[in-house]
Amino acid sequence: MIVQLRQPRREVEVRGGRPARAVLIELGLAPEGHLVIRNGTLVPSDAELGDDDLVEIRPVVSGG
Q1: pLDDT score, position 62
Q2: pLDDT at site 39
Q3: How is the chain classified by DSSP, letter by letter?
Q4: How far apart are CA 57 and CA 43, in angstroms?
Q5: Which residues, other chains included, contact 54 with Cβ-Cβ below 8 Å and sequence gap of 6+?
Q6: Backbone dihedral region of 27: left (phi > 0), alpha (psi from -120 to 50 degrees) or beta?
């Protein structure tokens, strides 16, 4: 699957057929600090990501 990352902006290809959390960990990203968007829809960290999915990962930003 193609994964679009922000900060820095780049694309990587990773194997699908596993939960979003596993993909985040493989990429060295903290699951609690990132949002996973599959095919335009926000998904939880236990959502299964497939080889045909387009995934975007965005860091969680807070402010006040």
Answers
A1: 81
A2: 96
A3: -EEEETTTTEEEE---SEEHHHHHHHTT--GGGEEEEETTEEE-TT-EE-TT-EEEEEE-----
A4: 11
A5: 1, 2, 4, 38, 39
A6: alpha
Q: pLDDT for 12-62, tens place per residue?
A: 999 999 999 999 999 999 999 999 999 999 999 999 999 999 999 999 988
Partners of 5 in the beta sheet? 10, 57
Amino acid residing at 6: R
All structural domains of the chain, each given as residue ranges with its CATH number in brackets, are 2-59 (3.10.20.30)
Provide the token pair at 48. Answer: 């299964």
